[in-house]
Amino acid sequence: MLRVGLTGGIGSGKSEVSRRLSGHGAVVIDADKIAREVVEPGTPGLAAVVAEFGDEVLLPDGGLDRDKVGSIVFADAERLKALNTIVHPLVGERMQELMDAAPEDAIVVYDVPLLTENDLAGFYDVVVVVDTPVETQLDRLTSRRGMTEEAARSRIAAQATREARRAIADHVIDNSGTIDDLKAKVDAVWEDLRSRAEAKAAAKPGDPAP
Ligand code: ADP
Hints:
Strand content: 5-15%
Number of strands: 5
Shape: globular
Number of domains: 2
Number of helices: 9
Bound molecules: adenosine-5'-diphosphate
């Protein structure tokens, strides 16, 4: 199994890249998506969150009011810790299940928005960074995601710089061109991932690292 960490700033094109890699056969693990799934209505995760935070964090339809939870935990480190104590192990379990279900020769791509910020490069065999000029990020976030320019700028400013991301990358995918340009770049990266996965599978367990 080849473990690939995929990261990039908000609006850089990470989701487009992970979709393309998934189309090639990668097993994509999206940490943010899993974090939402483990607290869906009817889950033990949601029951635990309600036991901790009360009914006030529920929406009328029974789903979790994420804005409400956010406003509680971002103002109080202890409450954030309590939330993480519930959610992190559930996310870890689900990730492990997905990994166990992946075939031995799988290329597993972890979509980790804060890989650089949380210093997680060491967990992966390969780090792929999607890199986009800030002006392009702003343009995509305002035109396609309906964010205000101010909100988009502050989200970008709260994340790692392009330089910090590039410094930990094995592959930098420049997404300043068209979607077709991006697809071609992803295809080239996929070829490299495949050869790395083959080399890793061929190396016998006791062999010295190359
Ligand atoms: P991320 O997951 O990194 O936040 P997305 O992949 O969702 O970013 O991309 C943000 C938006 O920009 C999406 O609507 C996406 O379709 C669009 N987008 C991504 N790459 C390009 C590109 N090269 N040209 C035009 N639009 C793009």
